[in-house]
Structure formats: C-alpha cells, structure tokens
C-alpha cells in the first residue's frame, strides 16, 4: 500500500506526553503524583485547590525524538509502504468560521507537550512532513486517499473515508467500505464530537445512533433518518443545524471544498 498517509498531529501528543511526567505541588510545598491526591491534601490542610501547581518533568529531546522515529518506522513496517507522507495541521482552519452553535474545539484545553515544537520540527526536517493551512491534517489525508494508499491515524473521524486504514495506536490494519464510510459520517452527525465541541443531536449517543441507522440500506436512507432526528430535536432551525454539523464533521475530498463546503445531496 503506497503511499502511507500519516496523521502527524496525534504523534506529537502521543510521543510528547510519553516522554514527560506531571506532578502536583500544593501551597505547602508537598509534591503529589496525581491531581486527585493534591486535592485531597488541600482539603486536609484547608488550602484552595486552584493554588495547586502542575509541574512537568520532561525527558531529554533526544529521547522523545527516538520515540517518534520508532513510531514512524513501525508505521512503515506495518503498511509495507515504500513512500510515506506525513501531514501536520498549521494555523488556520475554515471550520472556525463555520461554527455558530458552539465554538469549534472551544472546550479543548491548550495543553501541549514540552517538546511540541521539537517533535514537529523533527518530522518536518527529517521526515518531510507537510504543514497544512486553511484546513486540518485530517482533510489532507482524505484528499490524498486513493485505492493504493493507506490512512494512518488514531482518529476515528477518518473512518468516513473509504479505503485502507492503519491505527498506529492499536496496530490495526482494516478496510473501510463505501457503506461503512457513509455510516461513520452519518453516525457522527447524530452523536457529534465532544473532542471538537460539535454537539450533533442533543441526547443522542452512540447506542441510539446505531439503533436509528440499523435499518438503513443506502446513504440516502441514512440522510433522511438523520434529518428526521434533527427535525425532532431542540434546534429552532433543524436543517441549518444539520448543514452546520455536516460541514464541521466532513473530511474534505478536494481542496476546493474548503470554500464550497459540504452540502446535502438529497
């Protein structure tokens, strides 16, 4: 399978956090291994939990870059790829202006590994990683997916893209069918994505979404089932809400889509 299309964003965090350890200091100077232990101690001595100080102890740069090298080599071996393209998200993202119901990724904490920049620079300088602007690295993976390539990521959002996939966290190689790709997309239209602050249909979780889509035979069946769920939801303008969710969730298949945006087929 060539090329291996690698989502570099999770690698930054997986390897970065693996090479560091956090401890928590209470106002009396004691160090605790977890925030829970620190809070318990604060309750005991009567201090404000907001005064707990998180301290990060990171491994040397050479150690974390060795972890990155090992992970990327494992991707090469698992996919038997002769070519590997790594993508990293840059600064801007068209979804920021699409989101009106909730800020896109508005609840995600700005918690980066100590070696965040070192890891990104290493992948750019030594592995030829491409920095994507205006969209996300995920979109670049979807745009470049072909019958011969394999998407390498831990992000289940990309299961809406048909073809070969490799999860470098679970070491799983699998094929996503056209039906499976559509199912993944419309399931997310119902459940939303808490990581990216996309609400979907309120009070619909994964089990309910699977029940609603269970009898759908085609993508059109899925669309109308999802549309009905939005119509019975608490949204004042259900169709507009559905379109917004679709545009936030949809992985681009063509660069021009970042301007034209996803529109329902039916």
Account of the protein in words:
This protein is α/β, with parallel strands linked by helices. The chain has a domain of 39 residues. Helices cover 44% and strands 17% of the residues. The chain is built from 11 helices and 9 strands. A 6-stranded mixed β-sheet has the order 6-5-1-7-8-9, sandwiched between helices. The protein has a 3-stranded antiparallel β-sheet with strand order 3-2-4. A hairpin with a 5-residue loop joins strand 2 and strand 3. Helix 1 packs across helix 3 and helix 9 packs across helix 10. The radius of gyration is 21 Å and the shape is globular. The two termini are 34 Å apart. 35% of the residues are buried.
Pick out its properties.
266 residues, alpha/beta, 6-stranded mixed sheet, 3-stranded antiparallel sheet, 11 helices, 44% helix
Task: Give a brief description.
Helix content is 44%, strand content 17%.
**Number of separate helices:** 11
Low-confidence stretches: none
Helical content stands at: 40-55%
Number of strands: 9
Share of β-strand residues? 15-25%
General form: globular
Radius of gyration: 21 Å
User: What is the makeup of the main sheet?
Assistant: 6 strands, mixed
The N- to C-terminal Cα distance equals 34 Å
N-to-C SSE string, H for helix and E for strand: EHEEHEHEHHEHEEEHHHHH
Q: Mean pLDDT score, rounded?
A: 94
> Which structural class do you get from the secondary structure elements?
alpha/beta
Strand order of the largest sheet: 6-5-1-7-8-9
